[in-house]
Queue: 2 jobs
Job 1
Amino acid sequence: MNHALLPIPAVIDTIDRSVINNHIFTLRPEQSIELVPGQFVEISIPGVGSFPVSPCDLVREGLISSCIRRTGRVTEALYYLEEGDLIGMRGPFGNGFPLSMFTGQDALLIAGGLGMAPMRALLKALLDNGQTGRIILLYGSRQPETLLFRDELVSLAGHSRVDVRFSVDFAEILPGPCGDVLCRIGLVTELLADLDFNPRKTVSAVCGPPALYRCVLEELALMGLPPAKIFATLERRMRCGIGECCHCVAGGRYICKDGPVFSLEALRGMAEAI
Amino acid sequence: MKFKTPIKLAWHRFTSCSGCQLTLVNCEASMTALSAVVELHDFALVSSALGNSEVIDVALVEGSLTSPSEVKRLLALRRKAGLLVAVGACALTGGVNVMVKGERRRAMESIYGKPGTEWDTFPPQPVHHFVKVDWQIPGCPPEQHELLEMIAAILHGGWPGRQVMPVCMECRINENRCLLEEDHAPCLGPITRAGCHALCPGIGVPCEGCRGVVAEANQDELCRLFFAAGLSEQDIRHRLERFGEVL
Amino acid sequence: MLASTFPSYPLEQVALDELLGVIRAERALWAPHTGADGHCRLQPMGEGSLPRVAITAFLPLKKLLLPPREEIWSFRSGEYCTAQVPQAFAVVGVPLCDLQAVWYLDQAFADDLPYQARRAQALLVGMACVPGPECRCDGLSMPLAGDLFVDQERVWALSPAGQALLRACGCQVSQEMPLSWPVAVTGKRHALTQKQFFSTTEAAIWTDEAKRCLSCGACSAVCPTCYCFDMLDAAALDGSVTRHRIWDNCFFAEHGKVAGDYDFRPGRANRLRFRMEHKRFGFGALRGQNSCVGCGRCRKVCPVDIDLDQIAERLDGEGGS
């Protein structure tokens, strides 16, 4: 039995500060941690506390990158740390996205806000293994300036297999900073309206704030995607990560251990999950 | 928040009894360790020679605000302090000072005689009515470990974590007999923020609510229990308002 | 697997005092002790005399197996260090319902190193009890943990460790016998199916009971199978940090909150229902397993007399259909 509550020391390798309050921290744990996209780690700032975060990239040479929003007491403390500082890390926790299900299928990825971070890890995994057909990414953010990984996603639009579309809640000028990528003002779900895809041959993954799940998951099912092929990754206050402390429970399941990725089929049987 | 060690620490008292700063000064066992990481600036209870520094990293503020001159001093402190921490019930909610109700001029005269009517004062106000408060430490007085752990957490670049729960939880953990249940005493444990390790109920004194009200408090039901135990509406009101929290 | 019988020996064959003496020689002994205020608490016994019957202590065995505040690790000079393994101890005079609760905690914390480290150091000796009016235990509702069980006439070995102790005291031939569960228990837990429960989430009783609930958390604090916890760092002035696991409680406003203060269980009715869901149906791998052992502690401590069995009874009447 390993001590899943004991962190291993991790050094802050680099900090990408290009989007305000959504810095990307690349960490180097003393022992490498293997992660599937959608799994998460607990990051610990000794003396302050810890928080769960899902990496925004594949683990490369032992480095784990996460886009961490400055949103609470502990993340606030992280923003005062610098390259070379020592923190702690526990994990991997949770199930992650079922990558094998995307093989031979088209992928419809829908992200809202910070949900783009774990979605980017999934997108990279799908691009890397090359076994997925067409990849459609619908990404909604508050405004063009807060689109995460914008330049990278814009450059992906030239990729023959990838179709990227943005939506923003409000903007002064469009498409302006989004290059050739379609960018609409409105909700990310509105991008679904004129989307041409084959629901019988598509697996979908959704990641975003609670409000996104309530409107998008059943809509995808109405469009003809089987509920077993629609996946959502749920956000909760995961404290232990190992299915014990009870903070993240929904529908009788530990989101941290049985999830955080669930199919719509499973979610329908989990009261109050979304 | 990131400061060079030793951090420049100041303690300012406004309208209060000095009990909060005594709590820190009484941490004898930690004084050596504290002096290694903290440089005291304004702290009149410790030394009058510390003077009035230009820059303060962390300012601890005790007491409620009751006069324009106090507000002026508070604003000046906020301008030069990196962080400002309100300590104790008076600073957080006004504390026991707000018990004086009714016409202020008459109250002043009854206590101080004629000169009292001339003084420029106003009803006691909590610190956050005037300046941004970065952190709060509740209690009358606060707990020693909360003060020390906060200073230690600041050295790590953040605020300490704390569990928000009612005194009842700590009281049950200590296996105390329940004063509310067994004595029908007007104990405020169910609605009061824990952290004191249920000190008062532990020695048979019903909780007075000095640490403020928890978010999940069910005052209506607690009042109903007090009524059933024979307390008058006025008794209950006095009890609930003792530490300035308006319910 | 719900074992119904265990090897047992008549008390003439084993001298109880000798048996307790052997245990005492190797372990720190804890037992229920009734204080001057009439409350019973699990206390270290030192040289004091040991009980001959079980008493339901104010806090159950989780007080020792999952302490209210337990060091998980410390951080010194850039290193994370595990907490020290506790000393061997024994608890004598545990009621059977509390041994069931330990079985439940054993399952819930099967992969938890600090819990298992403490658990491995614990020897649990159950004793027959005198059930009170609040008792609703049921020997068939759950397996039980523990090492020995003693009533007025016999002693049972519940585990290999218990068996070894009895052998060491000279016990030779064993007879498989069912444990002597209390027979005087009158109250029964009201049966409720998951279907009934989830079809009555909007029932008026939830808001009615939530209006009375003080959110004080006493019921969960004293519950032998409530195990919510949080983890908090305490920094010291020398730069070291200690992380503690501390009891948490699903009645508190912070429990269901996520970053940005979004609350997945807003309101007292939601939280009351959440506790009921855990007691009746469990979470995760324990889903479907009732976790109420019927010890009656929650009913005894609730300042407003909320009773989950009464709620179940009313839900049964209202919904289900």
Note: Chain A is about 20% helix and 30% strand.
Job 2
Amino acid sequence: MKAIITILAVAALASVPLWLRDPYLLNALITTGIFVIGAMSLNLLLGFTGQLSLGHIAFFGIGAYVSALTSLGFDVGLPGDVRLVHAPWPPIAGFVLAIIVAGLCGYFVGLLSFRVRGAYFVIVTISFAEVVRLVALNWVELTQGPLALTNIPSIALPLPGVGELTLRTKLQNYYLVLVVALIAYLLIARLVHSHFGRSMRGLMENETLAVSVGIDVTRTLTIAAVISAAIAGAAGSLYAHYIRIIDPEVFAFINTVTMVIMVITGGKGSLAGPVVGGLIFGLLPVALRPVMAPEAQWIAYGGVLIAILFVLPRGIVPSLAQRFRRRRTGRTAPSPVALAETAAKEPA
Amino acid sequence: MLEIREMVCGYGGVTALRGISLEVKAGQLVALIGANGAGKSTTLRAISGLVPPRSGQMRFEGIDITGARPPRVLASGIAHCPEGRRVFPHMSVEENLDMGAYLRRGSGEIAADRDRIYAEFPRLAERRRQAAGTLSGGEQQMLAIGRALMSRPRLIMFDEPSLGLAPNIVERTFAIIRGIRDAGTTVLLVEQNAFAALEMCDHAYLLENGRIVLSGAGSELIANEHVRKAYLGG
């Protein structure tokens, strides 16, 4: 059942460019898709380990800057009359480096904060994002500061025997984002149903007990943070090569908040949640634009957010799944039983 | 089997254990009794590596485990049934049991052990797909014990196994714990219900304010004047 819905959803998303000819809407879908990948990575931490990263955009932005600088090249002076020169590399190398560097940053932040966790993790992530933003703003020689990095090349896929395919059009980028999103989705799905995924869930459900069965809390959380940050870095790289200009504004706090909203409304701890929440809140501003004044748009945005959480407090996907299941089985008892049943049926 | 020498332990500025020494012999059921805050749970937490000791020494089967982290202690053969919420509520009964074998490899042997536990507790077998949080208190206790056994411990530590259970379930729990000892697994039991603990144990220690003030066979402690007055209600 779940598999059918997933396949139908992917098929529907893949068919969009066939009937949607409006480049503005296609553009909105691409940027939304990139943010959905970011939201999925946030959900891995928030939904499956219970840790709230309020600086998640830092990993996204680091991915964007690393990828852009790798493909643009740079020449900066370091203390002691050393010059660091880097000749431009292909954007695909930037994409890979973005994932690695963002993952390392996730490791660093995890190392700093997971010995204490909870509120400390939230504070460390916020501070980290702010520090990174200030570096991007002030290290003008490297990042051009507020003048932004421009002319970032589009991603080019090396095709064996043919040469290179440069993804310049919106159509090509749409499918690129779709494929990366799908890979990220499958990776996270695989992860949460693995031995490792079980330790994340155990930790979230009952930490004392998780420790007593031998789960290493710090290690589990740090690995989750690394994978989450790496996926966010991949999304950032896609963003940089699609928009082709980035400035320190990518690190703005509102971008993290947007991701958190996508995850919470869609349903944290559900695989499809960030996708559903992401599509709604990514496309809502586009839908509201023709019918409302800019000021009213944000009010409507907030209204929709409150309405969703009021009607479906656990998030869209978990709440609807529960209602659907109840109707089918004709049972009034709520879900934990059924939840565990489906969980047990899935391959571990 | 387990020897503790002059162990000092604390949380932040508070010293919970002020130098305790105790010994658990193989095949015995050893009880640790005392009032709230005497340091019973801290002792278990220190043994399993949750609270690092400030000084002192712990040896298990001749191997030094002082300051070892929880996974190493568990892998060396000591299982800990912590007090409080006993199960992973949203996981199925079967997943809960598998969590007990978290550090083990070899799915065949794990499945065989799981079947043994189902044979022991048929109630769990009936509910193997059910979320553990929907079980009754007694069933959750059976599940917690089953999960602890899944790590194949040679020493199993129970922290307040009777807490929050109906009297007939408490009795059944104690019978199971005795059964575990009779089957050859050593047990270290922390229990509020001092009389029941002293009656069933081979050896007991009385903790007061982070110190061991009395030790001996269960029957000796039951007969002791101070124990009778302070812990057995007359």
Note: The interface with chain B takes residues 198-199, 201-202, 205-206, 208-216, 336-337, 339-341, 343-344 of chain A (CB under 8 Å).
